């Protein structure tokens, strides 16, 4: 072999060696990384959580998750964070139970500091949530109070912003739901309480929060399948969820140019204290969620990742959207 041929072969070997090195360097992000990740088994969603019939049970409004049978899953043991919200500051109303609790746990494990609001009688549930936030190494603020009071809503935002050192995520989740067979059974006091909790409170809170929100911040509402397919016994509640969907879409257009995104989550039948504290009849509660294609109600933990996604920076083009989670029966 000539010196020229030997030089060509040598260069070829160098290129092959270099190519192999580049391929090896790429492996940790692709194949090699996949090999290091624990394999996850497929989970059949139809059998993942309890199905009806459920035990007939009732609690005084607003109810406690800790006294429900079976207890709801908010992701206490299952949600694993990955730093998607590191350094963020979140205020969540209704953060003691239901979707608010699931969001609070998930946000903390994703690296956010979290303030939760709740009705004073929900203190036992709220203490559990604050403990979980602190276990995640984040700041957890408990701010009890009645959202039907405009002065308190303003105070809530100021306490959250002061205690967290800022505010860039507002989750307006708290809601009042009371079932009545007839409109004739709804008093003006009942109607007023539902409207103030579900519509006035977000209005007051968002107004108070806006001066604290900078470009990149977000607002997340909790709508419902009731906005699209209202039940006959939830006349007042369903109206408020349709209004929630519309204020989200309106605010998204108003605040989008300022760099503030506004979206909503629209759950279907979810196992929360709303149901056992007057939100459903005992007959309806017994069969709760059984009408969905999955044959069961959802658990708050199954919506946690949606709230995280809407809050995360990589969802920067999601604005004015309503994300559903209804087991196959809801819209959108």
Keywords:
globular, alpha/beta, 332 residues, 10 helices
Note down, in words, how this protein is organized.
- With 332 residues, the protein is an alpha/beta fold.
- 40% of the residues lie in helices and 11% in strands.
- It has helices spanning 3-26, 31-36, 98-109, 123-135, 150-164, 188-209, 235-255, 273-279, 282-286, 304-311; strands at residues 89-93, 113-118, 140-144, 169-172, 218-222, 261-267, 322-325.
- Strands 3-2-1-4-5-6-7 form a 7-stranded parallel β-sheet, with helices on both faces.
Radius of gyration over C-alpha positions, nearest whole angstrom: 24 Å
Main sheet specs? 7 strands, parallel
- Kindly state the percentage of residues in helix: 40-55%
Oligomer: single chain
Number of helices: 10
Beginning-to-end CA distance, first to last residue? 72 Å
Strand order of the largest sheet: 3-2-1-4-5-6-7
Note the topology.
Blueprint: H1 3-26, H2 31-36, E1 89-93, H3 98-109, E2 113-118, H4 123-135, E3 140-144, H5 150-164, E4 169-172, H6 188-209, E5 218-222, H7 235-255, E6 261-267, H8 273-279, H9 282-286, H10 304-311, E7 322-325
Parallel strand pairs: 1-2, 1-4, 2-3, 4-5, 5-6, 6-7
């Amino acid at each position: 072999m000539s010196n020229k041929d030997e030089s060509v072969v040598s260069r070829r070997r160098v290129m092959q060696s270099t190519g192999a090195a580049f391929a090896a360097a790429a492996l940790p992000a692709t194949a090699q990384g996949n090999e290091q990740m624990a394999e996850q088994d497929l989970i059949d969603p139809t059998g993942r959580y309890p199905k009806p019939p459920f035990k007939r049970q009732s609690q005084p409004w607003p109810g406690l998750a800790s006294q429900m049978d079976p207890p709801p899953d908010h992701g206490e043991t299952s949600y694993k964070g990955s730093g998607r919200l590191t350094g963020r500051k979140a205020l969540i109303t209704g953060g003691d139970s239901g979707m608010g609790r699931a969001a609070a746990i998930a946000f903390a494990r994703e690296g956010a500091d979290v303030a939760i609001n709740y009705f004073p009688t929900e203190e036992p549930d709220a203490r559990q949530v604050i403990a979980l936030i602190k276990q995640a190494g984040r700041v957890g603020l408990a701010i009890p109070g009645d959202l039907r009071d405009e002065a308190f809503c303003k105070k809530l935002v100021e306490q959250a912003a002061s205690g967290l050192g800022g505010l860039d995520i507002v989750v307006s989740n708290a809601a009042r739901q009371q079932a009545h067979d007839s409109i004739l059974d709804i008093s003006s006091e009942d109607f007023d309480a539902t409207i103030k909790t579900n519509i006035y409170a977000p209005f007051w809170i968002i107004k108070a929060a806006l001066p604290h929100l900078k470009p990149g911040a977000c607002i997340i509402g909790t709508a419902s399948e009731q906005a699209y397919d209202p039940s006959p016994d939830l006349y007042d509640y369903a109206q408020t969820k349709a209004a929630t969907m519309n204020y989200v879409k309106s605010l998204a257009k108003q605040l989008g140019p300022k760099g503030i995104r506004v979206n909503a989550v629209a759950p279907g039948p979810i196992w929360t204290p709303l149901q056992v504290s007057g939100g459903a009849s005992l007959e309806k509660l017994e069969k709760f969620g059984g009408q969905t294609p999955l044959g069961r109600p959802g658990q708050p933990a199954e919506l946690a990742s949606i709230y995280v996604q809407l809050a995360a920076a990589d969802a920067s083009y999601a604005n004015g959207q309503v994300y559903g989670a209804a087991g196959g029966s809801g819209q959108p």
